[in-house]
Amino acid sequence: NKSVIQTDSEQAPHRKIVLGFSQLGAESTWRIANTTSIREAAKEAGIELWFENADQSQSKQFEAIRSFIKQKVDVIAIAPVIESGWEPILQEIKQAGIPLIILDRLVNVSDPSLYVTYIGSDFYEEGRKAGKYMIDKMSTKKDTIGIVELVGTEGSTPSISRGKGFRDVIKDRPNFKILKSEVSDFTFAQGKQVMKTFLAKMGGDIDVLYSHNDDMALGAIEAIEEYGLRPGKDIIIISVDGTNKAFEKMAEGKINSVVECNPLLGPNLMQAVNELIQGRSLPKRIVTPESVFTETMAEVEVGKRKY
Ligand code: GYE
C-alpha cells in the first residue's frame, strides 16, 4: 500500500489546518451567533476547529490555551473575556511559535507583537453612536435628562469602550446626567434584575436607558413593564448588537435605537487563518463595518437580520 510510505512533503498539503479557539462564554444572543458563525465558517473553509467555551472564566481560557499549545495546533484564536492579565500566557504562545489571532474583544498588553491581528468592532464608536442618537432624540427636552446604564462584563473591551464613547459625546452637555451605571454581565437575567433595582430607587427620574447589549435591554423591558411604565415611551431605550429579538421590540416601539455590532466574524477569522498559514502578512486591526438602526426603520429591517 503506497500511502504507508508517503513522505512528509507528500502528506503535508492534505493535512487540515488545526485552529484552537478559546471562546469566552455563551452569555448572549450575540455570542451564540458568533460561535455558530465560527463553526460554520471553519467547516466551509476546511479548517479543523478545536473549540473550547470558558463560561466567562479567564483561568478556563488559560487552560484551553495551554492544551492547544501542548497539542501543537497551527493557529490559536482567543475571544478574551476581559482585557487585563494576558501578557504571561501570550508569551507562552509566542514561545511555542504558534501565531495568535485576537477576536471580538481586545487584550491589554504592552507588547503588541504578541498577537498577529485583532478582528472585531469599534466599540468606542458604538458608544458614541448611542450617545449621538440620544442627544438627537432628546433635543426638545431642555431640563435634566436622567440616564441609567446597564454595563456588560466588568473589564471587558466592549463595556469599557461603549461606556467611554457614550460619555465623551455627552461630556459637554450638563443636562444629560448618568444617574446610575451598573454591571449586568451582558445577560437577560441580570439586565432585568438590575433594572428592577434602578426603578425601585429612582423610577420616575429615569428618562433614558442605555444598555450595552440587547439581552440586557430585553430583560430591562420586562422590568419596566412590570413596574408599570412603557418601554420606548416613558423610558427611551438605546441598545447595542442588533439581534432579531431586539429588532422585534424596536418594531413594537419598545426599543428606540439599536447600534449594530456584528457577531458574524467566522469568515473573517478563517480568511485570516488561511492567509497566515500561506505566510501572508495581515493588518494589525480588522474592523467590522456597522450601522445604527432606529424605530422608524425597524419594521423594514426586522426579519432580515441574520442573528
Ligand atoms: O455586544 C454582547 C456579548 O463582546 C461584542 O459580548 C461582544 C459583546 C456583545 O455578550 O452581547
Notable characteristics:
19% strand; alpha/beta; 307 residues; binds beta-D-fucofuranose
Which secondary structure elements does this structure contain, and how are they paired or packed?
Layout: H1 8-11, E1 18-23, H2 29-45, E2 48-53, H3 58-70, E3 75-78, H4 87-95, E4 100-103, E5 117-120, H5 123-137, E6 145-151, H6 157-170, E7 176-183, H7 188-202, E8 208-211, H8 214-227, E9 236-241, H9 244-251, E10 257-260, H10 266-277, E11 285-287, E12 292-294, H11 295-301
Parallel strand pairs: 1-2, 1-3, 3-4, 4-5, 5-11, 6-7, 6-8, 8-9, 9-10
Antiparallel strand pairs: 10-12
Helix pairs in contact: 2-10, 5-6, 7-8, 9-11
The structure holds beta-D-fucofuranose.
Beta-D-fucofuranose (GYE) binds next to helix 2 and strand 9.
How many helical stretches?
Answer: 11
Q: Mind describing the biggest β-sheet?
A: 6 strands, parallel
Question: Which percent range fits the helix content?
Answer: 40-55%
**Distance between the terminal alpha carbons, to the nearest Å?**
49 Å
Main location: other
InterPro entries: Peripla_BP_I, SBP_2_dom
Protein name: ABC transporter substrate-binding protein
Family: Belongs to the bacterial solute-binding protein 2 family.
Short description:
This is ABC transporter substrate-binding protein. With 307 residues, this protein is an alpha/beta fold.
How would you describe the overall organization of this protein?
There is one protein chain. By secondary structure, this protein is an alpha/beta fold. The protein contains eleven helices and twelve strands. The protein has helices spanning 8-11, 29-45, 58-70, 87-95, 123-137, 157-170, 188-202, 214-227, 244-251, 266-277, 295-301; strands at residues 18-23, 48-53, 75-78, 100-103, 117-120, 145-151, 176-183, 208-211, 236-241, 257-260, 285-287, 292-294. The strands form two sheets. A six-stranded parallel sheet has the order 2-1-3-4-5-11, with helices on both faces. Strands 7-6-8-9-10-12 form a six-stranded mixed sheet, sandwiched between helices. Helix 2 (29-45) packs across helix 10 (266-277), helix 5 runs parallel beside helix 6 and helix 7 (188-202) crosses helix 8. The chain is elongated, with a radius of gyration of 22 Å. Residues 1-7 have low confidence and may be disordered. The site of beta-D-fucofuranose has 12 residues, from helix 2 and strand 9. Residues 23-280 form the Periplasmic binding protein domain. It comes from Paenibacillus chondroitinus. Belongs to the bacterial solute-binding protein 2 family.
